[in-house]
Amino acid sequence: MFERFTTSARQVVKGAVKYADGTGSGTVGEAELLLALLDRTGTPAADVLTALGAAGRRAAIERDLAAVRRRGGISAADAKALAGLGIDVEEVVAQVERVHGPGALAEPAETTRRRGRQLRRPFTREAKSVLERSLRISLGRGDKYIGDEHLLLALTARPGVAAHVLADHGVTYVQVERFLTGRRAEAG
């Protein structure tokens, strides 16, 4: 599958690994893929994110992703739904952090070295699903490659941390697809 990745898509994956290293996360997940996509410039995904305003809200997106991580993966939408049931997620997180320390619900970091060798960061099941979905999306669009735009479509195609955070910032699958289809029609 990776032989179909464009240079830009490969750079997104490599960037996601760097973000996982930087946050101390033991794995590469959707959040890291999204942050790496936000780093891109001059690519189809970068054009979409800029046109939809997400590129200009990077700091807010990073804060939202950090908040989801702090809450142990519970998105703002999930927290709102739980609030409707009388469960205050922020209070639960605060109580856990009082007892176990800040970031107690965040995914623990794994050891990144073994006998002096750097280990590869494993990808979460959700991140692997995004990569697989990007292939299916690429094939469905009739493309012979997987670009960063396919990764963006895959992140927004199904519910998940990245999709929820992007939707909170006005970026949905339908909008991304519409932008890319319009771009393709202009070029063709």
From TrEMBL:
Gene3D superfamilies: Clp, N-terminal domain
Organism domain of life: Bacteria
InterPro entries: Clp_N_dom_sf, Clp_R_N
UniProt cross-references to Pfam families, sorted A to Z: Clp_N
Transmembrane found in the keyword field: no
UniProt entry keywords in alphabetical sequence: Repeat
Every Clp R domain range: 2-186
Name of the protein in question: Clp R domain-containing protein
Lineage, highest ranks first: Bacteria, Bacillati, Actinomycetota, Actinomycetes, Kitasatosporales
